[in-house]
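Entry: Glycosyltransferase family 4 protein
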Amino acid sequence: MLKLLFVSTSVGPLGTGLGGGVELSLYNIAQEMRRRGHEVQIVAPNGSYFESLPNIVQIPGELQMIAQSQERNASIVMPGDSVLANMWEYARQVQTEYDLIVNFAYDWLPFYLTPFFSCPIAHFVSMGSLYEAMDRTIKQTADRFPGTLGFYTASQAQTFALDDKCPYLGSGINLSLYEFCAQPQKCLAWLGRIAPEKGLEDAVAAAKITQIPLKIMGKMQDETYWQQIVAAYPDAPVEYLGFLSTSEMQQQVRQCQVLLMTPRWVEAFGNVAIEALACGVPVISYRRGGPAEIVQDGKTGFLIEPDSVTGLVNAIARLDEIDRYTCRQQAEIEFSLEALGDRFEKWFGDILN
Ligand code: HBI
């Protein structure tokens, strides 16, 4: 039995969707570790709330700017009263009560602080390379504390040009929350934070060309970006449903013919892909980053030439080649909470032994 301290992402309270895929990962890993009898304490920004994970330690302070908006040569910027610094001050104070601290923030500070802590720290890196200062501290920490950095996927880890191979932990979901649907409606789905790196405009363009309605779900992160898309495609058959709970989201997605994934960046994983597969929904994605390691091309969806709207449209026309039950089966085999728990439990054990 391990005593684990999970320190959250710094860009938003847990449960708001601002932390994107890593929120779901933190929630699922915490739940699965507790189910296995480990003690898990979560530390997160004020206003965090997870339905079945009570007593999250709420930390005040200003949120960190999202790393995606940093220039590659940006300096490290932290607000005066930084929630990130305050979370790690808390971790420093209580560290002797834990066997392992797990960092879920994609920020310079926790990596820099690693040698100052007596308690071992496992860093779960939730995105690919975004800026130099982060790349540098990630490489230093990986070299100095081998095996303590975990990534979602190989393609994500490769963006950091590290010397040693690091653990690839993938992701996993509570499959009982996702209901298989054999007969979809005539509609497309797109899931994710509404932000430029997600390439939503291509999915909207594909909806316009095919005239198949597109349901859009996810946190409205960049309102300006959204308005630009609406202005560029005024008559596209799209509907924005907001940031939904898992049960509401899967209720919508399961009825769709396909999930379109249009990442502009190297998506570290793409939790939305396994959520769709769990509902029996095939995934059409650009062959880039995490989704390229998830989708079985021609079997559970299609991997197409990046940034090609024509590719999206041509793949949509081939969807009757995909057996929706095969999609559900892949999720059951590769992305269950049990499989996820095994990978994380092994990672933690390797660090502590
Ligand atoms: N940016 N600075 C910063 N810190 C984070 O922890 C962070 C982020 N941007 C996005 C993000 N986390 C998550 O949405 C992704 O890891 C999924």
